[in-house]
From TrEMBL:
Keyword Hydrolase: yes
Protein known as: Inositol monophosphatase
Coiled-coil segments: none
Family of this protein: Belongs to the inositol monophosphatase superfamily.
InterPro entries with a match to the protein in the record: Inositol_monoP_superfamily, Inositol_monophosphatase-like
Length: 232
């Protein structure tokens, strides 16, 4: 599969599939939710009058999509002025869907379906930490990530949005990333928080507009990781 590059210095791919998927979602919303706003990665902002915004990332993890790894996914969030209220992380290749908000947190896929809850891991020494890129972000971001990584039980890379789904499903404990956009993080926020986790920036503030994200399975683990990241 071929891809265009969004960056003059580096590689940030976009494919025909990215654009076609977002166009398809926008068409559905135009028919069913014409008064709502839309924010999408490929086609930007479309205003609305309802106070609600659909935040779309048609393929989160396009690098993984190009490489054939099943870590990419489709992200959809429904947000108001306070942030995401409902989110979906969908992996079409594996047939899995994780959703959360409006009083529910659940998954379904080829192996069945059920409610989701995050893990109770309270100590960093027992935590499983995921991120997408080994370089994480800028040098300062990398230093903050490594400071937490040096304290945990296991670190894995290259997971894209699937890492957030695994957290909501009770498989891992921490995700630390930097350089995110609103469409990268809003659906994961809704799904993880509905399952009992917490997602903020590295200073403990709301992160639904993007930036540096710390997602943790529970408040205790979040506080432990945050105490380290605040220094960076």
């Amino acid at each position: 599969m071929t891809a265009d590059n969004k960056l003059a210095d580096g590689f940030d791919p976009v494919t025909v599939a990215d654009r076609a998927a977002e166009q398809a979602m926008r068409q559905v919303l135009a028919e069913r939710r014409p008064d709502d706003a839309i924010l999408g990665e490929e086609y930007g902002k479309q205003s609305g009058s309802s106070g609600l915004t659909w935040v779309l990332d048609p393929i989160d993890g396009t690098r993984g999509f190009l490489a054939g790894t099943p870590t990419w996914g489709v992200l959809v969030a429904l947000s108001d002025e306070n942030g995401p209220r409902f989110g979906i992380i969908d992996q079409p290749y594996t047939g899995e869907r994780f959703f959360g908000g409006l009083g529910q947190a659940a998954w379904r896929g080829p192996r069945g379906q059920g409610a989701m809850a995050t893990r109770p891991t309270a100590a960093l020494e027992n935590a499983l930490l995921f991120t997408t890129f080994p370089e994480v972000g800028q040098p300062q971001d990398r230093a903050g990530f490594e400071a937490v990584a040096s304290r945990v039980k296991l670190v894995r890379y290259g997971m894209d949005c699937y890492a957030y789904a695994l957290m909501a499903a009770g498989q891992i404990d921490l995700v630390i990333e930097a350089g995110l956009q609103a469409y990268d993080i809003q659906a994961p926020i809704a799904v993880i928080e509905a399952a009992g986790g917490i997602v903020t920036d590295w200073a403990g503030r709301p992160v639904h507009n993007g930036g540096r994200a710390l997602a943790a399975a529970n408040p205790e683990l979040h506080a432990a990781a945050l105490e380290i990241l605040k220094g960076y």
